[in-house]
Amino acid sequence: MHWVIKPVIRGCGRAAVAVAYFSLSKLFQKLHLAQADGSYLKEMARLEKQHLLILDDWGLQALSLSERLVLLQLIEDRHGRSSTIITSQLPVSAWHDYLADATLADALLDRLVHQAHRIELKGESMRKRAASADRKGEEKSLS
């Protein structure tokens, strides 16, 4: 989970706001299982009703056409009614190419980007910093 998201989720919990958090790949795994067991529409309705949907790891793996269509449906159903946070190491300028279909990308990005508040983080990854600090601590304990 992205370090920026943890305080958001805690704050939402205190405010009794319904929040769902998924890495994008796990969301699609869950929805594929829901299609297989017949609960797909119920699961999509549950996701639509969340006050806040957090999609992490956007752009890490290619999406199939069916996944892109499901994503469009989900974002469309939530558009203007609920909040969505997307975390990604992929710059927004590369999202159009990532979605790989000009018409679908235009539709999806129109709903996501134009009314969004963007926070672009700069600098080294927090995981990399933590690993570096751990190594320094290990080196001190070995000396």
Explain what this protein looks like in three dimensions.
There is one protein chain. With 143 residues, the protein is mainly alpha-helical. It has a single domain (5-142), classed as Rossmann fold (3-Layer(aba) Sandwich), CATH 3.40.50.300. It has seven helices and three strands. Helix 4 links the parallel strand 2 (52-56) and strand 3 (83-86). Helix 2 (24-37) crosses helix 3 and helix 4 (65-78) runs parallel beside helix 6. The radius of gyration is 18 Å and the shape is globular.
Tags for this entry?
single chain, about 140 residues, mainly alpha, Rossmann fold, 3-stranded parallel sheet, 3 strands
Which structural class do you get from the secondary structure elements?
mainly alpha
Q: Which CATH-level-2 architecture? A: 3-Layer(aba) Sandwich
So how many helices?
7
| Radius of gyration, taken over Cα atoms and rounded to an integer in Å | 18 Å
Output the CATH class name. Alpha Beta
Care to count the β-strands? 3
Sheet with most strands: strand arrangement: 1-2-3
The helix content is 55-70%
CATH topology: Rossmann fold
Uncertain runs: none
Strand content: 5-15%
Order of helical and strand elements = HEHHEHEHHH
Name the overall outline. Answer: globular
The CATH superfamily label reads P-loop containing nucleotide triphosphate hydrolases
Describe the SSE topology.
Elements: H1 5-14, E1 19-23, H2 24-37, H3 40-49, E2 52-56, H4 65-78, E3 83-86, H5 95-99, H6 102-112, H7 126-142
Parallel strand pairs: 1-2, 2-3
Helix pairs in contact: 2-3, 3-4, 4-6
